[in-house]
Amino acid sequence: MGVFLVAVFLALTRAEDWRTYTPLAGGGYGESGHHVRHKPEGITRWLTTVDHKDIGMLYGLYAIVAFVWGGLAVLLMRTELFTPSMDVLGAVAGGTNAGNALYNGLLTSHGITMLFLFGTPIIAAFSNYFVPLLIGADDMAFPRINAIAFWLLPPGALLIWAGFFVPGLAPAQTSWTMYTPLSAEQAGFGADLMILGLHLTGVSATMGAINFIATIFTERGKNVNWANLDIFSWTILTQSGLILFAFPLLGSALIMLLLDRNFGTAFFAVDGGSPILWQHLFWFFGHPEVYILVLPPMGIVSYVLPRFSGRKLFGFKFVVYSTLAIGVLSFGVWAHHMFSTGIDPRIRASFMAVSLAIAIPSAVKTFNWITTMWNGKLRLTAPMLFCIGFISNFIIGGVTGVFLAAIPIDLVLHDTYYVVGHFHYIVMGAIAFAVFAGLYYWYPIFTGRMYQRSLAKWHFWSTMIGTNLTFFAMLLLGYNEMPRRYSTYAFNADWAPLQTVELLHQAATLGAFILAFGQIIWLVNFVQSWYEGPEVDGDPWGLRDTSLYGREFEWHERRLQTAVTDGGEEDEVATDGGVDETAAEEAVADEQSDE
């Protein structure tokens, strides 16, 4: 891994003329008079680009590939759980034990893929593309570091998935939490490669966070101050601060785990170390990670929902303050994942108090969203439907989380499917819904075209029905004491209602396939509309005459007016609204002749 990173560094330092264009004129890169040339053609453009918009598109494509992989993994798992015994995966892998191992590998891959390879990168796709546009910046503060941060991700994904593809390797079977001593003692190099790949994704996220903090602090336009900074940029700034404090700790813990696995150290060993130490280190990262994932989607909803409510976001300052409050409190709740580990009751009580308190700023946001819609002129477009779906699912996920924050209830429901249902109401029911709202709202900027509205609503309703059918069934499974992470549940019916458990698993599996059907509709709609959708002007949502017309659409409208995409001929018109150098030189010559 060290050799690989050194090779990447040397390749980047020796690359000649990497930046052959300026994505926005006056970008502040290089010396004054820097010559503006068009972007290279074809694959070279995407391999060498440092334009924040191109990198945002690369993040989006990468996240969609990971989303497909994680979705296929969970469909295989849910198909297996349709019946109590090991039927499907056992037949595929060649035996019950092999089927159990494959299930555990899919479970591990699904969790890590959705959180680290889909969740964080899809947010980076939005933030890379739109934060510079929203704050009036020419580009990110460090464009090349921005590119490096992305290109660390594909090798990270290959390492995480290597156990499924490389002959002789077995996929990691540790679950995404990698609890010791299991993760320290599990044989095979698949787990080592997964840990290395996860470490690369953490390095990538940390580099991106530093870049966003520097960009928002130093690259804002003259007319953008802290008072009128948009809510999405506020959430990205807060998220970046969380990443800066949380991800390096995860990286340190992963290095210690690798040392335990390969060099005989005893950081997390039962003799000489402490398996509980891993839980403290992991969850000190892991719970801020939940807010790292959910704060930017909250920002997307806070930004998009007012556009289709016909009024400004209610209580803008309180939404900002609640965002900052969540960022601070998120580092004081990690041990609520550990109530059943035997820690001191006084420590448990303090973490319960903070875990209950952090629900308050989340509730503030929820009431602000509802009040924004109250008596508004609602337009039920696809972005608005997904915003409303976000609020609905977030309330269910949040309330079930408040129950888990109470020690007596958590001791009963810990490590049951109730926890899985709660967590997925947040991750899929809230985060993914906000992502879809942003994708539909900004689709005209990505493509210059409009999607098929009827298919978009089919996508929403299938996703909404599938989400609630799947994860509400999991909540009920938790109340029936069904433990998580099990590939079979062929227990004695005298112990628990086996028929009820089987029926709820079948409902969850049916909901998962309805969810998958909705995502197929979304992919078909986006790809087809990209090529065949009707072209739109710079104001596809009819917001030009209101105070809700955003800076990103102002930029988009200027781009359409110049009739030159990135890579246009610089001698005709400047790229992305910049100053035409030829015209500027002629103007200077005219002034000198007048003098």
Automatic annotation (TrEMBL):
Pathway: Energy metabolism; oxidative phosphorylation
Positions of region (Disordered): 564-595
UniProt membrane topology term: Multi-pass membrane protein
Keywords on record: Copper, Electron transport, Heme, Iron, Membrane, Metal-binding, Respiratory chain, Translocase, Transmembrane, Transmembrane helix, Transport
Acidic residues: bias regions: 567-595
Keyword DNA-binding: no
UniProt key word Iron: yes
Listed Pfam families: COX1
Domain Cytochrome oxidase subunit I profile: from-to ranges: 46-555
EC assignment: 7.1.1.9
Enzyme type, top EC level: translocase
InterPro entries: Cyt_c_oxase-like_su1_dom, Cyt_c_oxase-like_su1_sf, Cyt_C_Oxase_1, Cyt_c_Oxase_su1_BS, Cyt_c_oxidase_su1_bac
GO molecular function annotation: cytochrome-c oxidase activity; metal ion binding
Gene3D superfamilies: Cytochrome c oxidase-like, subunit I domain
Transmembrane stretches, start-end: 55-76, 115-136, 148-172, 193-217, 237-259, 290-306, 318-337, 349-370, 382-405, 425-446, 458-479, 503-524
A Gene Ontology term for the protein's cellular component: membrane
Location in or out of the cell: Membrane
Membership in a protein family: Belongs to the heme-copper respiratory oxidase family.
Protein name: cytochrome-c oxidase
Organism whose genome encodes this protein: Halomarina rubra
